[in-house]
Amino acid sequence: MERFLLDTHILIWFLDEDTKLNKHIREGISYFQNDYFISIEALHEIITLRTVGKIDLQLDLMQITQILKNHNIKILPIELFHLKTLEHLSIPVINGKRHLDPSDRMMIAQVTPIEYKQSFK
User: Fold this and answer.
1) What do you get for the CA distance between the two ends of the chain, in Å?
2) How many whole angstroms separate alpha carbon 102 and alpha carbon 93?
3) Which of 14, 30, 83, 106 could form a disulfide with 41 if both were Cys (CB 3.0 to 4.6 A apart)?
């Protein structure tokens, strides 16, 4: 069984039953074919996007967390070692532009290999 961290947009599309989400990904989540995780940062980002009117997701936080529980999607907390990892992440350049999205960077820090994290303890 593989393990996947769902980014915020995948999570939004899943929660909103949006057709933008690839059918195979939706089925994988719905039928528990792998271990799926989200960062607590994704929930923070959803609340922020909804508050500023960038998304129209009609679910509140309690409904979202219930859906996550029903689909066995685990929520990863942000720990001190994630912040230490974040401190050392370089800023990626994608298509010639620096990718500065703080939520994406936090999620990258959360999935950095455990051996790298051990060096910060």
Assistant:
1) 29
2) 14
3) 106
Given a contact cutoff of 8 angstroms between Cβ atoms, the answer to whether 38 and 76 are in contact is: yes
State the Cα–Cα distance between residues 37 and 21, nearest whole angstrom: 16
Query: What average pLDDT does the structure give for the chain?
Result: 90
Of residues 5, 9, 50, 45, the one with CA closest to residue 29: 5
pLDDT digits (tens, 9 = 90+) for 47-74: 999 999 999 999 999 999 999 999 999 9
- Give CA–CA dist 41/102, Å, rounded: 9
CA distances from 63 to 68, 85, 89 (A): 9, 31, 33
Residue with tokens 């685990």: 74
pLDDT in tens, 95-116: 999 988 889 999 989 987 654 5
State the Cα torsion 26-73-34-80 to the nearest 10°: 130
